[in-house]
């Protein structure tokens, strides 16, 4: 879930949980802290994300529904992240099975996206096409999702030769770095080229050339 909303509103939704066990099991329901912008020091997930039950009974083929509420308070800024978690430990078993679903909250009107290209490695071999190994660093107050990031190779006149778009992937959290790799479709002959990277986050476009 990604929710963009002002601090004075409430968002309510639900999630259905299905068991793969062949018998009725009891699942604990709880929230966990995940990644918060540093400007939200002292704020925990319990301050803005709540669930309506702490346990549900799940029978084979019968999903259980959990309602949750997101209610950010005044003074929260940028992005906050939490987890909706479900755990099952059957009687007589030592294994505790847990799954979690991330909930990303962005406080509307406080977003300050700021991402930098930390490092770019370009590689090509005699048998494989050009590849990019990109490191992005997030200096802003919101997480950055690079899905759709366009990476292009330009000739010495800065005309497009080929490009590729990054598919679904994990975000770059505030105050952190993350690497992304991609492969182009063809091998380039020797020569001078430019690499261009375009990334859009919260209506702001970043271009690295």
Task: Describe the structure concisely for a colleague.
By secondary structure, the protein is mainly β.
Q: What do these coordinates show?
A:
- With 209 residues, the chain is mostly beta strands.
- The strands form four sheets. A five-stranded mixed beta sheet has the order 1-8-7-3-5, with no helix packed on it. The protein has a four-stranded antiparallel beta sheet with strand order 12-11-14-15, with no helix packed on it. Strands 2-6-4 form a three-stranded antiparallel beta sheet, with no helix packed on it.
- The protein has strands at 2-5, 11-17, 25-33, 49-51, 55-58, 64-70, 79-88, 97-107, 115-123, 131-138, 150-154, 160-165, 177-183, 194-201, 204-208.
- The mean pLDDT is 89.
- Helix content is 0%, strand content 49%.
- Strand 14 (194-201) and strand 15 (204-208) form a beta hairpin.
How far the N terminus sits from the C terminus, by CA atoms, comes to 33 Å
Structural shape: globular
How many strands, what sense, and barrel or not for the largest sheet?
A: 5 strands, mixed
- Provide the β-strand percentage band: over 45%
- List low-confidence stretches: none
Number of DSSP strand runs:
15
Judged by helices, strands and strand pairing, the structural class is: mainly beta
In sequence order, what are the helices and strands, one letter per element? EEEEEEEEEEEEEEE
Number of helical regions = 0
C-alpha Rg, in Å?
22 Å
């Amino acid at each position: 879930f990604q929710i963009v909303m002002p601090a004075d509103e409430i968002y309510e939704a639900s999630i259905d949980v299905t068991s793969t066990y062949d018998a009725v099991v009891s699942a604990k329901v709880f929230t966990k802290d995940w990644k918060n912008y540093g400007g939200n020091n002292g704020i925990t997930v319990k301050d803005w994300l709540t669930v309506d039950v702490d346990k549900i009974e799940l029978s084979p083929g019968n999903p259980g529904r959990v309602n949750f509420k997101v209610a950010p308070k005044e003074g929260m800024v940028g992005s906050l992240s939490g987890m909706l978690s479900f755990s099952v430990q059957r009687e007589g078993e030592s294994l505790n099975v847990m799954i979690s679903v991330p909930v990303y909250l962005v406080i509307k009107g406080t977003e300050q996206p700021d991402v930098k290209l930390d490092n770019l490695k370009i590689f090509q071999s005699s048998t494989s096409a050009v590849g990019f190994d990109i490191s992005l660093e997030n200096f802003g107050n919101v997480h950055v999702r690079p899905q759709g990031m366009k990476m292009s190779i330009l000739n010495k006149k800065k005309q497009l030769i080929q490009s590729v778009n990054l598919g679904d992937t994990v975000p770059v959290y505030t105050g952190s770095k993350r690497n992304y790799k991609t492969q182009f479709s063809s091998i380039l002959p020797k020569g001078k080229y430019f690499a261009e990277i375009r990334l859009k986050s919260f209506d702001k476009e970043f271009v690295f050339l």
